[in-house]
Amino acid sequence: MAQPSLYQQVLDPAHRADPYPIYAELRKTPVTREDDGTYVVSTYNELFALLHDPRVSSDPRNRPGAAGATAKPDQGQDGLPLSFINHDPPDHDRLRELAMRPFGPPCTPGRIDGMRPWLAEITTGLIDKFAGKNQVDIVDDFAYPLPVTAICQLLGVPLEDQPRFHQWADGLIETLDPATGTYEQRANKRAEVQAELGQYFSGLVDARARQPGDDLISGLLTDHGPHAPMSREDVLATAGLLLVAGHETTVNLITNGMLTLLRHPGVLDRLNHEPALVITLVEELLRYEPPVQMRTNRAAAADINIAGTTIPKGSPLALMLAAGNRDPSRFADPDRFDPGRTDNAHLSFFGGIHYCFGAPLARTEAQVALQELARRLVNPRLVADPPPYRPNPELRGPRHLLIEHDAVAPARQEAGQAACPGTAGQ
Ligand code: HEM
Questions:
Q1: Threshold 0.85, pTM exceeds
Q2: Pocket of ligand 1 (CB under 6 A)
């Protein structure tokens, strides 16, 4: 039997706990071609160039033969239309700009920062529940509920609908895992889940159109700026995108963060005594254990010459962000976790026009979460190392992270009084 390629080894769940030695091997050849025609890119400079290259397309219709290639730009009806993550300019830029207006600066500068006290309150409530238990699961008991609650709050989704959201988001995220089926099978599964999600958001959008609140969906529907308002179909697609994009990614950042801190107890202790460290620490976590390890949703829309290789038009790309983040030609001592690292232009939020829209929220959530875990857990320790991982190579993170602790320190005085965030600062 033929030896699996390095890329196939990365996809193999057996290597999920520590894919980094395989990435190091991959980097020896910056661009490699798989038998199925996929070009795998693993070095920082080449990745950086492609992230900013207008010939790299996010539109599934530019991947000949792929199931998504037949998707219509506004399929609507029983599903969600393509959201802006799957569009190229000019549609991408127009929709992203519209979505940005009720989300962040310059039109809504206070939205995410205004969520900080409220996030602290949710965090406090979750950690309070650890008291009296000798074992907790950082994933199920903490890292999962926090971002889901946050994204539901942002979108104006009622809390009682959250369990259904978990199922839909899980279903969609599973379809990103190349190990769960062919591209076609995964696209079909994705369409099924999207149909249910589309129906749900349809009801929510109608309700907000009748009676707007101060949530993001209402903001999109009532915007009066240039090109506004967003069409109803695009509001549906954007809501679905934000739900999924802001879900598993942040779960993994918080969980990978706690795992890394427990493997570096000196840093955990330092964070407790030096809370301001959390800013550079979260950036270093993003570099060192990226929640999104790779993107496999791109294709070359023209022939591209890079690192002595010509990637032919139509070829699928595998952009190995996590490999680039540990490229020794860009980062000093890249396999070392250095919480004070300042020269840290990691690729974890991507780059160029598709740079992560939710990065300010993800950073805020992780900062609040890790600061509080470091402050309140007395003598926390891992139950198993490595923990069990989800099979997904793209959105990589532990399935569970069991920890033990001796006690839970009291919550801060001011916690528990935060109002729900609205459009503060608008
Ligand atoms: C640690 C957490 C997160 C990580 C590591 C992350 C990473 C990424 C990456 C790598 C991309 C580029 C995807 C692509 O173009 O194929 C992306 C795009 C995106 N992210 Fe995030 N993300 C995180 C959290 C969030 C959150 C909390 C939200 C929502 C509030 C969000 C919303 C988005 C959106 C809407 C895009 C599409 C941007 C565009 O196409 O212009 N992300 N993110």
A1: yes
A2: 58, 84-85, 96, 241-242, 245-246, 249-250, 253, 291-292, 295, 297, 348-350, 354, 356-358, 361-362
